[in-house]
C-alpha cells in the first residue's frame, strides 16, 4: 500500500452453512471468531476484509427481508466498501450470479409479514428491473476450477430464486450505483453474489472464499 493511503474495505456477507462459517476468518465478532479477525490488510494487499453472517444467532443477516434490509443499510454504508460479495446456499458448488431483480413479490421468508418493506426495495426503478453483477465472474470461476476440485460456473440467466439471496444481491448492486458520484476513495467498484452448494465442505468453501477475494483484489488492483 502506498504511503499515506488509507486501506479500503471489502465486505462479505453470508447466510446458511457453509456460507457462515467459511467467512469466519474475516469476522471481528469474538462470539463468532475466537481466533480473532484476520482481515486487516489481508495478505498485505492493502484491503481490509470484513464478514457478517447469521451463524450461531449473531443477530445479523437472519433469513428475513426486513432484518436483512436493516442490517445491510446499517453496516455497509458505514464501511464504505470498495467491493461487496454476498454468499448464500444454492444449487451447484460455486455459482457466480450474473443478475438480480427488483421484485415486488418474493418467496415468503417465514416471518409473520413474509415480504420486504419497501417492496419493491428500490422505489426508483420499476418492478422487475434487472441489475448486473460487477464481480470478475469468469476470473473467479477459472481460479476456483484450477485451484480446487469444486465445479464453478457463472449463472448467466436472469432470475436467481426470488428469495433472500436475490434480495441481498439486489441491495448490494443498488448500493454500488448510489456511490458512483462520490470521490474515488469512497466509491464502491464491485458487487455481486455467489451461491455455494450445501454439500461443499467447510474447508473447500473457506479456500474458495479466499480465492474469490484474491480475484476481486486482482481486478481492483493492489492498493
Count up the helices: 4
Question: What's the end-to-end separation, in Å?
Answer: 5 Å
Total domains, how many?
1
CATH class: Alpha Beta
Contiguous uncertain segments of 5+ residues: 1-5
β-sheet strand percentage: 15-25%
As a percent range, the share of helical residues equals 25-40%
SSE order: EEHEEEEHEHEH
Q: How many strands, which pairing sense, and closed or not: the largest β-sheet? A: 6 strands, mixed
Question: Overall 3D geometry?
Answer: globular
Mean pLDDT: 93
CATH topology descriptor: Aminopeptidase
CATH-derived architecture: 3-Layer(aba) Sandwich
Arrangement of strands in the largest sheet: 2-1-3-8-4-7
Task: Compute the CA-based radius of gyration.
Answer: 16 Å
Annotated CATH homologous superfamily: Peptidase C15, pyroglutamyl peptidase I-like
Structural category is alpha/beta
Number of strands: 8
Structure summarized in a few sentences:
By secondary structure, this protein is of the alpha/beta class. It has four helices and eight strands; from the N terminus they run ββαββββαβαβα. The chain has helices spanning 65-79, 137-147, 164-178, 202-220; strands at 8-14, 47-53, 83-89, 94-97, 99-102, 129-132, 152-155, 190-196.
What would you note in describing this structure?
About 25% of the residues lie in helices and about 20% in strands. It has a single domain (about 10-220), classed as Peptidase C15, pyroglutamyl peptidase I-like (Aminopeptidase, 3-Layer(aba) Sandwich), CATH 3.40.630. The longest helix is centred in the last third of the chain and has 19 residues, at about 200-220. Strands 2-1-3-8-4-7 form a six-stranded mixed sheet, with helices on both faces. Strands 5-6 form a two-stranded antiparallel sheet. It has four helices and eight strands; from the N terminus they run E-E-H-E-E-E-E-H-E-H-E-H.
Amino acid at each position: 500500500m502506498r504511503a499515506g493511503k488509507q486501506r479500503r474495505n471489502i465486505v462479505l456477507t453470508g447466510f446458511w452453512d457453509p456460507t457462515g462459517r467459511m467467512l469466519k476468518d474475516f469476522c471481528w465478532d469474538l462470539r463468532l471468531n475466537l481466533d480473532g479477525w484476520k482481515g486487516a490488510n489481508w495478505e498485505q494487499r492493502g484491503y481490509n476484509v470484513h464478514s457478517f453472517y447469521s451463524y450461531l444467532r449473531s443477530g445479523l443477516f437472519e433469513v428475513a427481508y426486513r432484518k436483512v434490509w436493516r442490517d445491510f443499510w446499517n453496516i455497509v454504508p458505514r464501511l464504505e466498501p470498495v467491493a461487496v460479495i454476498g454468499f448464500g446456499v444454492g444449487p451447484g458448488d460455486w455459482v457466480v450470479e450474473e443478475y438480480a431483480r427488483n421484485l415486488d413479490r418474493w418467496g415468503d421468508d417465514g416471518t409473520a409479514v413474509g415480504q420486504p418493506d419497501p417492496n419493491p426495495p428500490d422505489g426508483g426503478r420499476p418492478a422487475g428491473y434487472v441489475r448486473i453483477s460487477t464481480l470478475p465472474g469468469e476470473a473467479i470461476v477459472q481460479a476456483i476450477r484450477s485451484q480446487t476440485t469444486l465445479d464453478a460456473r457463472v449463472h448467466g440467466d436472469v432470475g436467481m430464486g426470488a428469495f433472500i439471496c436475490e434480495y441481498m444481491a439486489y441491495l448490494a448492486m443498488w448500493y454500488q450505483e448510489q456511490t458512483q458520484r462520490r470521490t474515488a476513495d469512497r466509491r464502491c467498484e464491485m458487487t455481486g453474489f455467489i451461491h455455494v452448494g450445501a454439500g461443499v465442505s467447510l474447508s473447500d468453501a473457506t479456500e474458495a472464499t479466499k480465492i474469490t477475494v484474491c480475484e476481486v483484489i486482482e481486478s481492483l488492483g493492489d492498493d
